[in-house]
Each structure stands twice: as structure tokens, then as C-alpha cells.
């Protein structure tokens, strides 16, 4: 595993120094190759439609599946990291990503693309990205926040470079040869994984979060055996399997947190709803520009503009949100950024002139930087860190579902109406409604918590609120402790 196999050497941990910075560079490249890659699919949208005689809805399933699997494969990636380590998982992801794109270059139907580029490449990208982030967490402790912020610039680099490269290769050699070359490029994830060599941690520093559940399961099994049950008894085997399944679900899918933590519940529902419209501009902006007479190279440049601005704005947004004044208020910044994303879509409805589309990309990029920089920070604010990984598993799976169905449903609407404006109407509806829901719900939740704290304070310190009544009592009586003190001392 990432923690290292050799237990007895006693060497110093190479954290925050030396090879850790090479791992950070590998993480930047990984995020450019994986998270940045789906943004270029819109460049091929029109060619794939003509090649396979597919509708907007059918074609949009391809990038939707890729992004959904990229986000939703987190729990499976966590299991692979636990069993085989970060390095193996990153390299496995690179192999799958390359294999998926190479296979896509030989596809004969749009449905085959769903499996090759959508499922296989998406799953490979998920393994490489999430295992790379995990390895980065092992290599950095003191500078972990800075390392994550720097690594996230890889996404912006990918947004800038992938569309330009895609359009150039598409013009020169067609989409099939371009996909073949993409397969070779994505194999570089294996090189990044090779750089992330296992790191030895000090004795006793390994995560112990799974031990209580394992001990509980073993105690239940021992109780059955003490009552005379055979270890191979069908009832005991079924009970053991159920216990293990429950432990896995509890560890990787935090349904208990979703039911008990109102903040996590509101945020997860809001982001899941938001994702119905968040990806629509990335999928349909280039086809929309081409449909309105913009040259293909200029249309591809629009996505690159979004990525280029993200390179500078996203780190600034992360630093701004880290200020003390925003502690506990990041959800409102996130809601504001989501609201701005939704409102910016109306610019495309007003006009499809290239200069107007550039203005749209600038505003959208600024808003997207806020959403991208704050998504996981807000999640850390509403969930305790010892349960963050399991909360993240459920969070990514739910948002991947709406990532999957959003673009095809909008594509179906465009096919029926023959009007691309519905892309931006739909995106605005989901983004604005999600922003208002999260902002207002957290505001109401905050007021409710303040009222509860005030009520608790009155119960814990009744003399403060009953001073005028107790001042009329004799002094001797005031010496006896109030009954509420016995309650609070339990």
C-alpha cells in the first residue's frame, strides 16, 4: 500500500520535502489528464453525430457516462487503494484509460462508444485521479493545503490544452486517429503512478478506523461459536456475510450521516440537483457555437478560455475562502458561485456572437472557479473528518447519477424543439434553484441551531435569566444550589 511494505527500516518519512514535490508534479499532470479530458469531448460532438447518424441526446450519453463513472467510481477506487496501494491503482487507471480510447477509435456505433470511451476510460480516469489525490495526502502533511491547491491547477491546464489539441488533431487526421493518439497520451498516467512510490510511515500511524467494526464483527462471530454453532454453519455464514456487507456500506457509503446530519443532507441534495445543469455548457457550448456559424477552431477556443482563466482564479478563490472571516460561511460563497453560474447562461440566450460568447466564458469561468475550489472544502465543513471518506463516497455517487442523466435529457429536448437555447435555460434552472435551496436552507438551519444553543444556555445557567425573581428570596435560600445544577453535572 501507499504506507509502505517494509516495516523495520526506521528511516525518516519523506513528507513535505524531496521526492514529495515530484509526486506533486505527477498529481498536477494526473488531474490534467483525467479531470481535464472530458472537457474536449464537445469538440467531437458534431463529427460523431454525422459519423453515426445520432441525435443530440444519443451523442451526449457518451460524455455523460464518462463523467458519471469518473465521479461515481470513488468507493471502488478506495477498495483498490486499500488492497493494492495508490501506485498500482493509478497505473491500472492509466491502462484502462488508454485501452478505452484506443478501442474507441475502432467503434462502429455510438453505443460501442458508451462502453469503450464512456465506461472504460471513465473508470480508468477515476482510479488514476482519486488514487493520485490519496497518495498526495500521504506525501504532504504540513503543506497539504498548498499541495492540493497546486494540484488542482492541473484541471485548469487540462481545460486549456485538451480542446486546442483536440481541434488540431481532428482537423489533421479525423476523430478516429485522434482517439488513438489520446489513448497513448492517457497511458502517461502509468508514468505518473510509477513516480508515486510507496512511502513508509512510522509505526502506529496507519489508519485504524476500520478496527472497531472488525472487532464488533469478530465478537459477534465468537458469541455464536461460544453457543455451540459451527463456523461452517449456514446461519453463522449468512450473519457474517451480512455483517461484512454492512461494514462495507458503512465505511464507503455514509447513509447514517445522510440521515442524521442535516447540513450534509442539504448540501448533498443541493449539489446533486445542481449537477443536472452544471455540465451542460461544457458539452453543448462548442456545438452551439458551430450551429450559429462560429468557425470550429474558434469554437474550441471557448473551452480553452474557460480553462485558462481557471488557472489563476481557482487558487485565489481557495486562498480567499481560507480567510478566518469565511469560516463556517463557505456554503454561502459556494451558493453565490452557483447562482452566478446559472445567471451567466442567459448571456448565451441573448446573443450567439463570438464576442458575446467570450464574455460568457469569462464570467462562467470565474463562477466555476468558485464552485470547483469550494466543493470539497464545504463538505469538510459539514462532516467530521473521521467520516469524510465515507461521506465523500455517497456524495460522489449521487452527483454522478445526475451528471449521467442531465446532458441526455437536455439533448432530447433540443432534438424535439431544434432550439439550442433550451440547453442554457435548463442549466440556469437547475443551478439557480440549487443555489437558492442551499443558501436558504443553511440560513434556516443556522438560525435553528442558534435558537437551540440559546435554549440550552438558559437551561445550563438559569440564575442569569431568573435574577429578578430570585432577588426577592431570603439570602439564606440563595445559598442552596439550584436543582438544575444536579442535572447538568450528570
From TrEMBL:
Transmembrane segments annotated in the record for this chain: 19-45, 61-81, 88-106, 112-139, 146-165, 177-196, 266-287, 299-319, 331-351, 357-379, 391-410, 422-445
Residue span, Major facilitator superfamily (MFS) profile domain: 20-451
Primary location group: membrane
Keywords: Membrane, Transmembrane, Transmembrane helix
Region (Disordered): 205-238, 465-490
Membrane topology term: Multi-pass membrane protein
UniProt cross-references to PROSITE patterns, sorted A to Z: MFS (PS50850)
Gene3D superfamilies per the UniProt record, alphabetical: MFS general substrate transporter like domains
MF GO annotations: monocarboxylic acid transmembrane transporter activity
GO cellular component: basolateral plasma membrane
Entry keyword Transmembrane: yes
Classification via InterPro entries: MFS (IPR011701), MFS_dom (IPR020846), MFS_trans_sf (IPR036259), Proton-linked_MCT (IPR050327)
Cellular location(s): Membrane
Compositionally biased region (Basic and acidic residues): 211-222
Annotated protein name in UniProt: MOT6 protein
Amino acid at each position: 500500500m501507499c504506507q509502505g511494505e517494509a516495516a523495520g527500516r526506521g528511516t525518516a518519512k519523506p513528507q513535505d520535502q524531496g521526492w514529495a514535490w515530484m509526486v506533486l508534479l505527477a498529481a498536477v499532470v494526473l488531474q490534467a489528464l483525467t479531470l481535464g479530458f472530458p472537457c474536449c469531448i464537445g469538440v467531437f460532438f458534431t463529427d460523431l453525430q454525422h459519423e453515426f447518424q445520432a441525435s443530440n441526446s444519443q451523442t451526449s450519453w457518451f460524455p455523460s457516462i464518462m463523467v458519471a463513472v469518473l465521479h461515481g467510481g470513488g468507493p471502488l477506487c478506495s477498495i483498490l487503494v486499500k488492497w493494492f496501494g495508490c501506485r498500482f491503482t493509478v497505473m491500472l487507471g492509466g491502462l484502462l484509460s488508454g485501452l478505452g480510447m484506443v478501442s474507441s477509435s475502432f467503434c462502429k456505433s455510438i453505443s460501442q462508444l458508451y462502453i469503450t470511451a464512456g465506461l472504460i476510460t471513465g473508470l480508468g480516469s477515476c482510479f488514476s485521479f482519486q488514487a493520485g489525490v490519496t497518495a498526495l495526502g500521504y506525501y504532504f502533511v504540513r503543506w497539504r493545503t498548498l499541495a492540493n491547491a497546486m494540484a488542482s491547477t492541473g484541471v485548469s491546464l487540462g481545460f486549456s490544452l485538451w480542446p486546442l489539441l483536440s481541434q488540431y488533431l481532428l482537423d489533421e487526421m479525423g476523430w478516429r486517429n485522434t482517439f488513438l493518439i489520446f489513448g497513448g497520451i492517457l497511458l502517461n498516467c502509468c508514468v505518473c503512478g510509477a513516480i508515486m512510490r510507496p512511502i513508509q510511515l512510522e509505526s502506529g500511524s496507519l489508519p485504524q478506523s476500520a478496527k472497531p467494526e472488525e472487532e464488533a464483527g469478530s465478537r459477534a462471530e465468537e458469541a455464536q461459536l461460544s453457543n455451540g454453532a459451527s463456523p461452517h454453519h449456514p446461519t453463522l455464514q449468512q450473519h457474517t456475510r451480512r455483517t461484512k456487507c454492512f461494514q462495507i456500506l458503512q465505511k464507503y457509503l455514509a447513509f447514517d450521516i445522510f440521515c442524521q446530519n442535516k447540513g450534509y443532507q442539504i448540501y448533498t441534495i443541493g449539489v446533486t440537483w445542481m449537477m443536472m445543469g452544471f455540465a451542460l455548457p461544457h458539452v453543448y457550448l462548442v456545438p452551439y457555437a458551430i450551429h450559429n456559424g462560429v468557425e470550429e477552431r474558434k469554437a474550441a477556443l471557448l473551452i480553452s478560455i474557460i480553462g485558462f482563466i481557471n488557472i489563476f482564479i481557482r487558487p485565489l478563490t481557495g486562498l480567499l475562502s481560507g480567510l478566518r472571516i469565511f469560516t463556517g460561511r463557505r456554503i454561502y460563497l459556494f451558493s453565490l458561485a452557483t447562482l452566478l453560474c446559472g445567471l451567466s447562461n442567459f448571456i448565451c440566450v441573448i446573443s450567439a456572437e463570438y464576442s458575446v460568447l467570450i464574455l460568457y466564458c469569462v464570467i462562467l469561468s470565474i463562477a466555476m472557479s468558485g464552485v470547483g475550489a469550494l466543493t470539497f472544502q464545504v463538505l469538510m465543513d459539514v462532516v467530521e473528518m473521521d467520516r469524510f471518506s465515507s461521506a465523500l463516497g455517497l456524495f460522489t455517487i449521487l452527483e454522478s447519477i445526475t451528471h449521467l442523466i442531465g446532458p441526455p435529457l437536455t439533448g432530447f429536448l433540443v432534438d424535439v424543439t431544434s432550439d439550442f437555447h433550451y440547453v442554457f435555460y435548463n442549466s440556469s434552472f437547475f443551478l439557480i434553484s440549487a443555489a437558492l435551496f442551499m443558501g436558504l436552507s443553511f440560513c434556516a438551519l443556522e438560525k435553528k441551531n442558534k435558537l437551540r444553543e440559546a435554549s440550552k444556555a438558559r437551561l445550563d445557567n438559569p440564575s442569569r435569566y431568573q435574577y429578578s425573581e430570585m432577588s426577592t428570596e431570603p439570602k439564606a435560600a440563595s445559598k442552596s444550589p439550584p436543582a438544575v445544577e444536579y442535572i447538568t453535572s450528570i
